[in-house]
Amino acid sequence: MNRILIAMLVMHVTYLGELGVGVRGWGGVMPAGESVTDSLESRIRMRIRAIPGAAVGVAYANLSRGQSLYINADTSFHAASTMKVPVMIEIFRRVDAGEIALDQGILLVNQFGSIVDGSPYSLDPAEDSDSAMYHQAGTRVTLRELLERMIVRSSNLATNAVIAIAGGEQVTATMRNLGARAIQVRRGVEDGKAYALGLNNTTTARDLAIIMATVEEGKAASPASCAAMREILLRQEFNDEIPAGVPKGVKVAHKTGQITATLHDAAIIYPHNGDSYVLVVLTGGISDEKVARSLIADISRVVWLYDAAMQGARSRADVDGK
User: Which of 144, 148, 197, 257 could form a disulfide with 82 if both were Cys (CB 3.0 to 4.6 A apart)?
Assistant: First the structure.
């Protein structure tokens, strides 16, 4: 076992110990001169330091209480599949405008044009988390099903079919209108020529938090459409990142994203007896996905403990009339 691995293990064990201290600390015993938000940030930063070379962006916001924390939140990352949430928003806005209908049939084909020169390319079912979608190629599939598969199973084939309707430039423009200032949705998945030229979909943790907040608050589209989008996000089938850091049974509406050495999760968390909150964790430079997954789950866990403690403190203040 090399020295780096030993150091990582020691820091991780220390971090887990700190979680226990953190519960007591957030209950009222804080180090001198340290606020509860400082304590949350220090615990998250300590966990990140356990992985040398990792790039991590974190955005947390409890919208009802006005509490937030941002760590490297304006650092740009390859968006991976998190960009599918902005694409979904754009489609629902067009449904609201009466331009398209969720039940209209879309001819599903596995051929797309590169944004570089329009040259055709196809997707490899073996590289798609929803290979079953390819059995429907050559048939008409409702836009509703395409959206569902794009989010719940992260289907790349469904995504490219939907982006062909939404348009990357329009999706980006819509995100600007919602307050997300850096995110860029340029293209569909597996456009090799675009990738070679660095023409990628990119985002920041802050922007994804803004976007998820607009869905939660009913501002991304009509209230009915936002409710429908939240239900789709709640049906997400890949739940080993942010959901792994909260107690079983807690609802999490979220979208993950993953490419080589990159793993993300953007979520709205619904505690049983408290206000919902938004948490986004973006990671890069971590070649072992198990390490990245554990990192995101641990950050989610410490944020959950913090948010629960703050909810408890507010509840006690309400009872005391303070």
Answer: 257
Question: Is residue 231 domain-resident?
Answer: no
Task: Quote the pTM value.
Answer: 0.88
Do 88 and 125 have their domain in common? Answer: yes
Q: Are 277 and 103 in contact (CB under 8 A)?
A: no
Tens of pLDDT, residues 216-251 = 999 999 999 999 999 999 999 999 999 999 999 999
Per the listing, tokens 């920041």 go with 204
Structure tokens at 42: 């220090």
Within-domain flag for 107: yes
**What is the tens place of the pLDDT at every residue in 10-63?**
444 344 444 443 334 544 444 444 556 679 999 999 999 999 999 999 999 999
Map residue 5 onto helix, strand or coil.
Answer: helix
Tokens read off for 269:
């968390």
- Residues 97, 168 within the same domain: yes
Q: Hey, what are 188's tokens?
A: 């569909």
Placement of tokens 């607009």 in the chain: 214
Do 191 and 273 form a contact (C-beta atoms < 8 A)? no
- Total tally of structural domains belonging to the chain: 2
Sign of the C-alpha dihedral, residues 295, 298, 302, 304? positive
List the structure tokens of 150: 């794009």
- CA-wise closest residue to 311 among 67, 118, 56: 67
Partners of 1 in beta bridges: none
- Please name the amino acid found at residue 202: T
CATH code assigned at 256: 3.40.710.10
Q: Locate tokens 């009466």: which residue?
A: 98
Evaluate whether 194 touches 115 at the Cβ level (below 8 Å).
Answer: yes
So what's the pLDDT on residue 73? 98
Phi-psi region of 159 (alpha: psi -120 to 50; beta: other; left: phi over 0): alpha
What's the DSSP call for residue 29? -
Ranges of residues in the chain with a pLDDT under 70 are 1-37, 313-322
